[in-house]
Amino acid sequence: MINAIHHVAISTGDMERSLKFYRDLLGLEVIMEGGWESGSPESQMAQKINALKAPAAKMALLKTGNAMIEIFEYSSPQPKPGDPNRPVCDHGITHICLDVTDLDAEYDRLKAAGMTFHCPPQMLGRSVKTTYGRDPDGNVVELQEILWEGSRLAL
Q: Could you tell me where the beta strands, DSSP code E, fall in 2-137?
């Protein structure tokens, strides 16, 4: 039985840049940091799990509410950088969605800090306001505000 989504993982070319974005700018809490060197027992286990030859990486696990994001910076094998402008229609994970309060204020704050967005916040019907932006590696991050009327969704 599947209970829930535990985390989403992202590979980055620059751990510190990603931590500045997810931890410092978005406010996620680092709850674990680690990594392994090529040839270590951890690397041998990661080799089996990830199907990579002699992997070496740094990792960090960040949390907000009930969502977690795991970030990896691999140094071995040599990773290929992703397309920072990859369209969301291409195959693979299209975006990470973060639930926010006061989307307009978050949009203004993050845009002022240098985050790029596809567009300003948009209404989807009467109950959801949303926008897509990009992390420093080009991964799409959706910011979403659910609008409630009393104790139910505004329909």
A: 8-11, 29-36, 56-64, 67-76, 96-99, 116-117, 122-124, 128-134
CA distance 132 to 113: 15
pLDDT tens-digit readout, 66-88: 999 999 999 999 999 889 899 99
Closest CA to 56 of 78, 81, 80: 78
Helix, strand, coil fractions of the chain, as percent rounded to 5: 20, 35, 45
Which residue's entry shows tokens 């060197």?
Answer: 37
Which tens digits make up the pLDDT trace of 87-132? Answer: 999 888 899 999 999 999 999 999 999 999 999 999 988 889 999 9
- Which CATH number goes with the domain that contains 72? 3.10.180.10
> What pTM value is reported for the model?
0.86
Q: How far apart are CA 79 and CA 12, in angstroms?
A: 9
- Domain final residue pick, 81, 114, 142: 81
Domain span including residue 97: 83-155
